[in-house]
Fold AAA family ATPase.
Amino acid sequence: MSVAGDRFVVISGCSGGGKSTLTAELRRRGHAVVEEPGRRIVQEERAGDGAALPWVDMAAFARRAIALALADRAAAGGETGWVFFDRGLVDAAAALQHATGEPVLGPLCRAHPYHRRMFMAPPWPEIYEKDPERPHALTAAIAEYERLCLAYALLDYDVTPLPKASVRDRADHILQMLDD
């Protein structure tokens, strides 16, 4: 892995599983954080023509997410210490491959690796909520979660499930696992 990739830690998993809240806690503790590409794209698309919304054109959305994830990685290269990504390139490539069948996951993601250990937020129905950037049902979020677990495993990441615990406990868990 690249030197930067060794510091780049992905937090992925089920939509509505608490990833953004967790990355906000990690930022509060002084770590660099990269916000989820998909949410940023949805916000931009809702303000514009909406052509690349995931529920309108998943392939267009995923292509934009790939470009944004690559730009995020490049921009984070100057950071020191851990950099936590709320989703990232693997998520975007898995979405494109699922939508189109294009075999982009392996070649693209192996060329731009993250830290070998990544963290997966499991489905958590008790905290799941729809919002303007997440209008899909929990069943769709669970299906995406299952695809992501497979994608990260196929790329030989050490997929580490996050506990269903307080945000403070989750952040402590991540930092302890990275120090081991």
